[in-house]
Amino acid sequence: MTPEADTLDEIGTATLEVVDEVHSSDPTLPQDRSDAIPTNVLLYPRRPQVLVTLEDSAPRTFKGARKSPEKELWVKAIKRELSSMAMLEVWDVVELDPGFKLVGTTWVCKVKKDHLGKIIEHKSQLCAQGFTQPAGVEFGQTYSPTGRLLRSMIAFALAMNLEFHQIDIKSAFLNAPLSETVYLGIPQALELDIRLYFLKLKKAIYGLKQASLAWYNPLKKWLVTVCFVSCILDPCVFYQRREDPIWLYVHVDDIAIFGSNLRKFKNKVSKEFDIKDVGPANLMLSIKVSHSPKYVLLYQQHFTESLLDLYGMLDCNTVLTPLVPNKHVCPASEEEAALFKKLNVNYRSAIGSIKYLSTATRPDLSFAVSAPSQYPENPEILHWKVFLNVMKYLKGTQSLGLTYPRGINIGISAYSDADWGNFWVSQRSVTGFLASSEVV
């Protein structure tokens, strides 16, 4: 973690602060099990519960795009997508075979931004409504692997002074042959008679149940033909052992490349796919990458800010610890759970957001997130206050991240410990572990 100004002595004095201006109108709210946490205030003013993304200004539908102030940009994006589909021969226009069901479509619009938050592209994608696909008819196996070793690869690649670059394969799914028979209805913006014609897919498109697998298989096959080997521990990691070894980390259409001579590989992949060469990696998996001569920093300040904005906490007070010391989180009673439901809070989404942060770049949140994550079915007000406290901690520590030094001999260290029956509800122990690379 990057150093913070707060001292260990200061951290021990943290308390849970609550906004005074927002009060509940329900006088029947239960008192917390700890009188150190006031219960008269429950929520910050928050925006509607939506998925936290960097594309908040994008229209949600095709009609919305047509009515948007940026209509011309969205129309160009839609035409660009249809042109790309035509060039890649994604479908044939046919009459519907009897016995097959049509799969619906929708347009998804995104405002793509770079690692500095600057708008670089208005993008529209035609997506299948995969939830309408009948299992066993239009799709079989759908599992596609997701990588787990990105941070480990970064640590060891930088220790060996390798370059860390990134490429983006454009229209990746549209390069994936489809083995199943799938018919689409005529999408909006395509000028065909919807009563007479249908689209028989030849390539996978976004939204299909099997789209990710359909893309992963030909990509892996091509990588094998150019002498890459898939890692046994992580099928999204590929390596090539030659004079200039190269390691790849594949996440759908984003590929992180580690090596000392990357130009040769980039030339090869550009002949097979249409790519965007990002150069030194700057944004992967919603993680910003900052390069310096001595180290690389992974951080998610932009994601944290969007979370604070979503829950109306951009101007909240800060605290020095993610959890209030010596305060226990326990299961809710039926009455408490029923009262919390009246607040209409998307508890799962909120906890999932900070859990993603804890697993990506903020391990200091892990224990604090584990407490409210135990009760997704029946949360109560106290659980929500734990979430708010984590958010206040994030407000004061947005710039923290993971730092990986360059050119330093490192080894692997692992630590594990457990308390003794500290979970007072069941008297079970809580175990934690940490595996890290350390300077030798």
UniProtKB/TrEMBL annotation:
Signal peptide: none annotated. Residues 89-324 form the Reverse transcriptase Ty1/copia-type domain. Transmembrane segments: none annotated. This is Reverse transcriptase Ty1/copia-type domain-containing protein.
